[in-house]
Design brief:
This protein has 20 helices and 11 strands. It has 419 residues and is α+β, with helices and mostly antiparallel strands. Strand 3 and strand 4 form a beta hairpin. Bound molecules: adenosine-5'-triphosphate and magnesium ion. The site of magnesium ion has 2 residues, from loops.
């Protein structure tokens, strides 16, 4: 098997070998090559210590990013490459951090500390694939399986539970039975995880092409860390299949993946995550106030907290008349309004006709923003309006237009005002 690794990576590996050491790409990139996906970064593992690495690459830029864990970053043609010395992790203190790490000269030991068989393969152009745990077989069979005894691995690091779900959601792979059993029984250990790490993994889970399957199947373990949302992880509540332009763009990388699927852009993933997170919150019946409390507990971004809360609060409004709908549009910017509408349509209590109603309003060019009005502040100045009066008057005119009391034409608006 030959992988088209970039020349810089090849040069790094060659430099180690010329100096009597070994180096391989490891984990993600090997898995991705085997899946036919171009890797998004190249982690390198080596038997050289960080000091030895610094000596070999003394002429290059090296950043000591995590030297106590044996990781340095080598910059080549301005691309950063993380290089980690083979290591054995010591006892884990808090379900997350190994108390100590020990460097080893054995690649086998380094691969044994990795989480899943599909992530525990190494490759170098000189030696080919090193696959000690049947990772290729599991990859072929679409299986996520812990390396070693799954109970022990989840005890060491409970984040692996969420990582398993993330890979399952991204690739559409099923989690092997013993690993799955341990995942359920050890889920409470996730309480010890920092919320930022939980959210980081949940971001990946929600963005996966198979998110719905994973949320449904793993509702119970996920409820340990996301109790507020878990009641929406059911067949009839999940809104992820809706036809929204914001939510339907699934990122398929594994099962049924085209042979050369690129990684989705980060910004697309953020939008998808935002919409799905808010959608689940809505289906879980969370009010805007409860949503803010949840986001604060989870230390989410301000964008997710405030944007989501705005959408949820607008959804509490009743949408029946044209005016209701225009009002909703006026309260949100375009992206949030689209999401709010999609959620309204999903909600079985809302009329299916909302979409048609919206299309009609937009075709008719009905205004819902001050800037949509056929008059501006400048038109009001000759009539003697000043300062705050201008804004108030425009709001009044907009409201009257939205109610259908006047048409959005300059003359009509000005004479309505005078009258
Ligand atoms: P991605 O495409 O999401 O980056 P990845 O497999 O590269 O996938 P990373 O989080 O970048 O995942 O981790 C790199 C590698 O380090 C993994 O492939 C795995 O071998 C190992 N690894 C990462 N996190 C853990 C963990 N919590 N426990 C054990 N091994 C881990
Ligand atoms: Mg990676």
């Amino acid at each position: 098997m030959f992988f088209p690794i970039p020349n810089d990576v090849r040069d790094i590996i060659d430099a180690y070998e010329k100096n009597g050491f070994h180096a391989h790409i490891v984990g993600g990139p090997v898995r991705d090559y085997l899946l036919g996906i171009p890797p998004h970064d190249f982690d390198i593992t080596t038997d050289a210590t960080p000091e030895e690495t610094k000596r070999i690459f003394h002429a290059e830029r090296i950043i000591e990013t995590g030297i106590q864990h044996g990781t340095v970053t080598l910059l080549k043609s301005s691309t950063p490459y993380e290089i980690t010395t083979y290591r054995i992790d010591g006892k884990y203190l808090d379900q997350r951090h190994p108390e100590s790490v020990t460097f080893t000269r054995s690649l086998a030991e380094d691969l044994a500390r990795r989480d899943f068989t599909i992530n525990a393969m190494a490759y170098a152009h000189s030696s080919g694939i090193v696959d000690l745990f049947s990772g290729q077989e599991d990859l072929k069979n679409h299986i996520i399986r812990a390396v070693g005894v799954p109970e022990m691995r989840f005890e060491e690091d409970a984040l692996r539970i969420l990582r398993a779900l993330r890979f399952s959601s991204r690739l559409g792979f099923r989690i092997e039975n013993n690993t799955k059993k341990a995942l359920f029984s050890h889920a409470p250990l996730m309480h010890a995880l920092a919320t930022e790490r939980v959210m980081n993994e949940f971001h990946g889970i929600l963005n996966g092409a198979f998110a719905e399957d994973v949320l449904k199947e793993y509702r119970t373990p996920l409820a340990e860390v996301l109790p507020e949302l878990a009641c929406a992880f059911t067949e009839d509540a999940l809104p992820l299949n809706a036809s929204s332009p914001l939510t339907k763009e699934k990122v398929t990388e594994g099962r049924e993946a085209p042979p050369c699927q690129e990684y989705a852009k980060a910004s697309d993933k953020d939008t998808l995550f935002f919409c799905r997170f808010v959608a689940l919150s809505y289906r879980a019946g969370i009010t805007a106030e409860e949503y803010v409390i949840m986001c604060d507990r989870l230390h989410t971004s301000r964008h997710l907290r405030d944007g989501g809360a705005k959408v949820l609060s607008v959804l509490d409004l009743e949408v029946r008349t044209d005016y209701d709908l225009l009002k909703l549009l006026s309260l949100l910017d375009k992206e949030l309004a689209e999401l709010a509408l999609e959620l309204l349509i999903w909600n079985k209590s809302a009329q299916e006709s909302v979409r048609g109603q919206l299309e009609r309003l937009l075709t008719e060019g009905r205004p819902y923003r001050i800037t949509d009005l056929a008059v501006s502040g400048r038109d009001l100045l000759p009539l003697g309006y000043q300062g705050k009066q201008i804004g108030d008057t425009l709001s009044l005119l907009l409201d009257a237009t939205m109610r259908g009391e006047i048409v959005n034409e300059k003359e009509a608006l000005l004479s309505y005002q005078k009258g």
